[in-house]
Specification:
Keywords: Hydrolase, Metal-binding. The protein is α/β, with parallel strands linked by helices. It has a single domain, classed as Metal-dependent hydrolases (TIM Barrel, Alpha-Beta Barrel). It is built from ten helices and ten strands. It has an eight-stranded parallel sheet. A two-stranded antiparallel sheet has the order 4-5. A hairpin with a 4-residue loop joins strand 4 and strand 5. The longest helix has 22 residues.
């Protein structure tokens, strides 16, 4: 068994076959946590989870790039961000659903700031305010916090700001995970020191910089999770295809190779870690 702790089957890429994709994953022994990025996709994640008796869950939250409006055009996707203010009451209501296991993905993204540098300070402040509100909700609702951390290229600026906020908000006493972390090993250690988990995805199968290998090797086994971040970041050997939760096994296989463990050991350990973090029920 494996748990894809961070998927987006609630996104438009799966609008024609979301249920079938999730059924395929479950049939292959993969549970799925679908993660929202604003109120609409959060509601869709909850609705999808409700269609299954077990094995499909939801995390709800506001992604930092949706705290302001801009057009993003990257290698794997092109979209217009939604300018949304975090509605504590609306998300709190969603969090009451028993299928909701986390709050997020939330955090800071300095990699994709608007081209107009004069608004950077304001945008960063909007991101920080939304992040702090979601930390408060995670604590009040007793849900895991799913953290998005993307720094300016070549720096750890967003990660260090996130670390400061987590400490200020007492998150060393609450459950949280760094999703798709690609920062430095030195800063990862600081997150681990305050109790954080770290989740690895397909990037570890195709990274050429050597950084992901360093991160995997330094991360303690009892703090490691696996994810797909589908439909993005498809792992080798399925590069070029739409990513989906069942592909998480390729990431787990590569993780096992880098850590010097068997696939079965990584499957068991990462699943136990995910249950501890998100409080998933036992199958």
């Amino acid at each position: 068994m494996l748990i894809d702790t961070h998927a987006h089957v609630n996104f438009k890429a799966f609008k024609d076959d979301a249920k079938e994709t999730l059924q395929r994953s479950l049939s292959e022994g993969v549970w799925v946590n679908n993660v929202g990025t604003q109120i609409q996709t959060s509601r869709q994640a909850v609705e999808l989870a409700g269609q299954f008796n077990e094995g499909v869950f939801a995390t709800i939250g506001l992604h930092p790039v949706h705290t302001y409006s801009q057009h993003l055009d990257e290698e794997e996707t092109s979209f217009q961000t939604k300018k949304e203010k975090f509605d504590y009451g609306a998300y709190h209501q969603l969090a009451l659903n028993p299928k909701v296991v986390g709050i997020g993905e939330c955090g800071l993204d300095y990699y994709r700031l608007p081209e107009d540098t004069s608004v950077h300070k304001k945008v960063k402040q909007l991101q920080k305010e939304a992040f702090i509100s979601q930390i408060k909700l995670a604590k009040e609702a007793d849900k895991a916090l799913v953290v998005h951390s993307r720094s300016t290229k070549g720096t750890d600026d967003a990660c260090l700001d996130i670390l400061d906020i987590l400490k200020q908000e007492g998150m060393d006493k609450h459950r949280f995970v760094l999703h798709s972390y690609t920062g430095s090993p030195e800063v990862l250690q600081k997150f681990l020191d305050i109790g954080g988990f770290v989740s690895f995805n397909g990037i570890i199968t195709f990274d050429k910089t050597g950084n992901m290998e360093k991160l995997v090797k330094m991360a303690p086994l009892d703090k490691i999770l696996v994810e797909t971040d589908c439909p993005y970041l498809t792992p080798v050997p399925n590069r070029g295809k739409r990513n989906e939760p069942s592909f998480v096994k390729h990431t787990a296989e590569h993780l096992a190779k880098l850590k010097g463990n068997s696939f079965d050991e990584i499957s068991k350990i990462s699943t136990e870690n995910a249950k501890k973090l998100f409080k998933f029920p036992s199958p």
